[in-house]
Write a structure and sequence with these properties.
Signal peptide: 1-20
CATH class of the largest domain: Alpha Beta
Organism: Hydrobacter penzbergensis
Distance between the termini: 18 Å
Order of helices and strands: HHEEEEHEEEE
Protein name: Beta-lactamase-inhibitor-like, PepSY-like
Helix content: 10-25%
CATH architecture of the largest domain: Roll
Number of strands: 8
Radius of gyration: 16 Å
Number of domains: 2
Strand order of the largest sheet: 1-2-3-4-5-6-7-8
Keywords: Signal
Low-confidence stretches: 10-23
CATH topology of the largest domain: Nuclear Transport Factor 2, Chain: A
Strand content: 35-45%
């Protein structure tokens, strides 16, 4: 799941100047911003990347991940969702167009004021990640063997 989150975030953030700072340690501003927004989070861990800081955690028994810039601004968040919680039209399209694939996970990503779902599918060695809009539009995000 972490690879799916990271792939989606990196792809969405390419070219965004808010991620340009050099991050080498978790600073007080970022930590405080996270704690204020997600009070009560448990099992918190963080990972520092050159472009952003990610926090993986649980809140109300839900696994989530939040992404921050080095100045403490929240730039996105993601959480697991059940496949059947996607827009109904998208569920039907995916079941019709990918009948031989098994759904491995579904993630809702909120980034820059927009929400999209990402669905990881597998069929043997074939792996696909689909992007689903809030309106049910389905497109191929990544295709791997």
């Amino acid at each position: 799941m972490k690879k799916l989150f990271l792939a989606v975030l990196i792809a969405a953030s390419i070219g965004t100047s808010a991620f340009a700072a050099d991050i080498t340690h978790l600073n007080y501003r970022v930590k405080s911003a996270f704690e204020a927004t997600f009070a009560g989070a448990t099992n918190v861990s963080w990972h520092i990347n050159p472009q952003f800081i990610s926090f993986a955690f649980e809140l109300n028994s839900e696994k989530m991940e939040a992404f921050y810039s080095s100045d403490g601004e929240q730039i996105g968040m993601s959480r697991h969702v059940s496949f059947d919680k996607l827009p109904a039209s998208a569920v039907k399209k995916i079941q019709k167009n990918y009948p031989d694939y098994q759904v491995k996970e579904a993630v809702k990503m909120d980034l820059n004021g927009e929400s999209n779902y990402y669905v990881s599918l597998e069929n043997g060695n074939l792996k696909r990640i689909l992007e689903v809009s809030e309106f049910g539009r389905v497109s191929l995000f990544s295709n791997r063997k």
